[in-house]
Fold:
Amino acid sequence: MMMTERTETGPTRPSPADKLRVAVIAGSGRLPEEVAAKLAEQGRAPFIVALEGEGPGDRFSAYDHILMPMEEGANLLSILRQHDIGRIVLAGGVSRRPNPWKLRKNLRLVAMLARFLIPLARGDDNLLRAVTRYFEDNGIKVTGAHEIVPDLLASEGPMTRTKPLAADMKDIEAGHAAARAIGLLDVGQAAIAIGGRAVTLEDIGGTDDLLARSRELRDHGRLIGRKRGVLVKCAKPGQELRADLPTIGPTTVDGAHAAGLAGIAVEAGRSFVLDHAETIGRADALGMFIFGFGRSED
Structure:
């Protein structure tokens, strides 16, 4: 999306950042690939910084790209400037942390990371805010992935042929309340509700782990007599929306089905449905629903 700035005389003109290239800082998952493809489609050949260990090394071979170990992060700003980058998109998950043994030889990175120690201790969203502020303090604008690929955002209402039942709507309400509660603590973005109450909450292990724990509860007989259930995901209250929006895809559908859930509910307009056709098609084939509920008031 082209950003403009207003001069003192009134007319608008493109922001200097828009005259330069766009870089994608690519973590794990399909979102960075979707963002890169959309930028290329728009004629804005992206420069990809693929974070080492966060996905197949050859997935960006069609683009100008580098593979960057976390331990070389102190070089990122100079690399972006060398490639005339004026705007970046943060896309995908990051599970790795720099190797402390390698850090001891890189004093520049240690000094840079010191800026993020307190935000890191306060949670992921505080860390993302600090990272965003770091880039913008150094003259590089940060654009949300949802601004590049708005067509991947969840729509409101049923997205599948199957629709939630009245009992499922109660689960959605309970799961939403629980997901917002842990979001306020900057812990996670998701909860599973069964029988009108939340039974499992997302933690640092992420959504796949949440679904696996729910499946174990069923397998071990802890949910005897409780049928259906819903995975609910929403943005954290007050979240930095330019990074880490809730995401679902085909593997989420598979995990929810394995956990015995009736469907998935996500916050419309603030959640991604990746591999959209495949995700919706898989849910339809399994008789599950995917539902977009209205935006929360932060």
